[in-house]
Amino acid sequence: MASVEAEMTDNSKASNPYSRLMALQRMGIVHNYEKIREYSVAIVGIGGVGSVAAEMLTRCGIGRLLLYDYDKVELANMNRMFFLPNQVGMTKTDAAVQTLSNINPDVVLESFTLNITTVDGFETFMSSLKNKSFNPNSEGTGVDLVLSCVDNYEARMVVNQACNELNQVWMESGVSENAVSGHIQLLIPGETACFACVPPLVVASGIDERTLKRDGVCAASLPTTMGIVAGLLVQNTLKYLLNFGDVSRYLGYNALKDFFPTMEMKPNTQCSNAACMERQKEYILAKPSRDAAAKAKMDADSLVAEEFPIHSENEWNISVVDDDEPDKVSTITSGSLPVGIMHELPSADKFESDPAPAETSNPIDDLEDLRKQLDALNAD
Question: Which N-terminal residues, if any, form the signal peptide (predicted)?
């Protein structure tokens, strides 16, 4: 793929690899698509969902991807849409870098082959998220969004802990063990429920998740379900980063019925996660200024709408009649249309009117003549 700096323009030539993406900007869907080059996204778990999400973001021209996993590619992974047989034995992060760099060499790829649930792995994970070398002017951490694509509760809780401590927005995703349902969820520390606010029922019941796996039973995996969940995850990632459309707070997927439930989960005011409670306090304290800023923006937008009416020109001479003034009518008559406008149908043909009937004599004179004729007969 050609250099992004040279090619990510409004040029719609077939040789431009970004022309279809830039069409979003030309059509007014996205205000400034080029900003995607400034964003960093971390993907934790390069499995069925994470690998496809990484490929989609790479094709979209994301600026930087951080990839985390500790597994190796196996032949059992070939049912998915990313890994290749010749990559068996490679770590998933190395295989991902190999594939993604061939797709788009302009994306900055950073791979971390580690287990984030270990002490050392967690420290490296936190340190890498805070690294601002890619964009020194970025606010908060060194990444704009974290995507959790792991397949177990323990790893999700680690991502949750890190993001709560760093006040980092992240998205969680998952596919069921039977591969016919999945979900994505946006988590904003302090504003939405964190992953510890509403734990899964089995975990809340005190059951060790590691004892749930049945010996000899492998979890199912459908590339279709994985691809759909990855697509929903990346679609909402783009909406969040490029500020267009509505970002789903929670979106489920049931493959058997093609059902997409949505919901919004508020934070638990008695959450067991101390960092989450701290973020909730900060969110409440900042609410007045945040609401004032939102109101000011709304007022500014309404002023702009008043100053610049939607129809600034009226080339058709259309006028609006006030209901309180019924006597006012449009000045345009049927015979006087603006230049360039014509009647859709021709005027009706004019038929000659029937000739006026001939004048008849006065009825009184007729009676007088009749009387004289009768008198003449009687005289005979």
Answer: none
